[in-house]
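User: Hey, my collaborator sent me this sequence without any context and asked if I could get a structure. I don't really work with proteins. Can you help?
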Amino acid sequence: MNKSFIRNFSIIAHIDHGKSTLADRFLLYTGAIDERKFKNQLLDDMDLERERGITIKASAVRIQYKAKDGNEYVFNLIDTPGHVDFSYEVEKSLRACEGALLVIDASQGVESQTVANYYLAIDNNLEILPVVNKIDIANIDLDHAKLQFMEVLHFKEEDIQLVSAKEGIGIEALFEKIVKFIPEPDGDEKSPLQALIFDMKYDIYKGIIIYVRVLNGSLKPNMKIRMMHMGKDYSVEEIGMFMPEATKVKRLGCGEVGYITCNIHEPREVRVGDTITDAINPTAEPLEGYRQLNPLVFCGVYPVNTKDFMGLREAVEKLRLSDPSLVYEPESSQSFGHGFRCGFLGLLHMEIVQERLQREYDLNLILTTPNVQYRIKTKDGQVEFLENPSELPDSSDIAAIEEPYLTVTIMTPVEHMDGVMELSKRKRGVFVRSAFVSDRMKIIYDVPLSEVIVDFNDMIKSVTRGYGSIDYTFKDYLPTTISKLEIQINGKICDAFSFLVHKEKAYEKGLGLVTKLKELIPQQLFEVRVQATCDGRIISSARVKSMGKNVTAKCYGGDITRKRKLWEKQKEGKKRMKQIGNVEIPQEAFSAALKI
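Assistant: No problem. I've predicted the 3D structure and written it out in structure-token form, which is a compact way to encode the shape of the chain:
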């Protein structure tokens, strides 16, 4: 196909500004999907995405549009997630495009993630087309929304497109603007093949389905290809495009986006960001891959039944195909046996991975309390990174402990500024600067990662009545004072609840966790004692009473000594049970530990 009629673009925006609805409208308008088969959030094909109403995975689709100039254009469109935990998905998608539609909600205006996505697109040298969505909402100030685009992100007024994805208003004008505004792909059909792997997924029949963007040359079935970073050769079995269903084609030309299969079933053999080239006539240089993301939150993932460990290993390997931001390594625990220490980009990312492992691979899992990664400088000059609290060295060997800090950008209406600053200080934040952005305040704080990951976003939403938004980037490791908080259950340390806390907050967190566990641990046949210890001393303690069983119910009348004998026998039995019995701790207890 002539690449001058191809337009490759992504839809990027803050969460809930209408990306998926706009993608749906594009499919309906061009007839790519029949009205009878249509459903909302069509490209969100995971049950989890539809239930939560968010996009988790970027989705690519090819649509055809006949423009007013009489030419037939091909749009390769990628719908991306909006949540900050999935910004890596956005970054992957932008590398497969020449342009991006930056969408804002007419009633909300420019939010923090809008700004972050704008700079992500700029870093990838994309042409950015500003789009104001939801113009059908009553009593909105469209001029104000346009003014924000012009003042904050310096767009020209004539480039701003006004649409309603829900009602289909302004879609044709937007299509015409895409044709004129977004450039055709570069590249040479006659050069040696260069194709970028930007995503993958596992199919039980076809093996690994590899999503590619062809930058030079072309791909054909039965062609011998080479993965340049892995250094392995394969034969192409199937080539196709998403229209939006997977459809086989004869070739993928220069500038096109599609998928290939090569009968690869081993997840370790393929990598996102790798370059595919012709094995017989290879290209000289591979394409620039993706930057390796550093996970921010770590926790242990264990199967409830230890026999499921091999199933968990296989599931994690397959899941990492489509989610390269997931990092894992094997570890073992006294309480749960063998499992994995996994790294995530945030708590929502962790929740989604847990649910996908449980639903898609039918696993029953326990996740330990999440921790952030600390940097420890020992007295002999070594630098170590600590993810697992049980590996904390003795205090006599530690010269300094540093914890990760984030630079957090908060956008808020001016009237909520005091509440936001008060909350940030409470979270041990250090004020950097503030500035007016149109009619709102942009406030920047350096806040410890451990304070941000749990509930900071929710609290900002609460303080600003839903109008505030946050975006964050990793800053650096800064000095701190840390203690290890451990939970003992009947005198035995439960390593799943061990975590590192700032010294000032140890008592508060220990008390909160013990109180919560007392509520959540079900009554056993024996008494359960729950204690929080920190720096070798008990800081909080509680007891879960044993189940009452009336052993003297069968005694009616007679001497009291008979009843005493039965009570003594029961007491001895409970003491013996306490020594050998296991305390059942439900998964809700681990979830509650996050929120303390």
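In plain terms: The longest strand covers residues 398-413. You can pass these tokens on to your collaborator as they are.
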